[in-house]
Amino acid sequence: MKISAAESVVMEALWRRSPLTSEAIMTEVCEPQGWTDGTVKVLISRLVKKKAVGATADGRRYQYAPLLTREAYVGAESQGLLDRLFQGRLAPLVMHFSEGDKLSDEDIAELKALVERIGK
Question: What average pLDDT does this structure show over 80-89?
Fold first, then answer.
């Protein structure tokens, strides 16, 4: 399932707290993004059509909740990035960030601890 960058903003709002009405979603995302209510309604509609978000009738309104977990989304997006840019391999990605001092000392310590834990 492909989720656009704009749709992911709506998803993040729903992952933080759900279910939400369209009005509550608009309150969370319109101003920071500079979007209109109509833009958010279109994004919600797309996400429902993609089955990333479910809609439950609540009187005359709908409550929206994610059907796609954040973990599944991050996993798919991460794998897609690795596949597109690094032939599916993680080491070249880390090497890319290690060049030009892009990794902080904290990042390096976390990577070392991760490698150590994986090696056990």
Answer: 93
Give the separation between CA 44 and CA 8, rounded to whole angstroms. Answer: 10
Q: Which range, 67-71, 77-81, 103-107, is most confident?
A: 67-71
3-state secondary structure of 29: helix
Please enumerate in sequence order all residues whose Cβ is within 8 A of that of 18, keeping only pairs 6 or more positions apart, or say none: 64, 65, 66
Q: In 10 A of CB 15, how many CB atoms? A: 16
pTM over 0.90: no
What is the dihedral sign for C-alpha 101, 102, 104, 105?
Answer: negative
- Please report the domains of the chain, with CATH numbers, ordered by start residue: 5-66 (1.10.10.10), 70-119 (1.10.4040)
Question: What are the distances in angstroms from CA 40 to CA 5, 73, 84, 96?
Answer: 13, 20, 29, 36
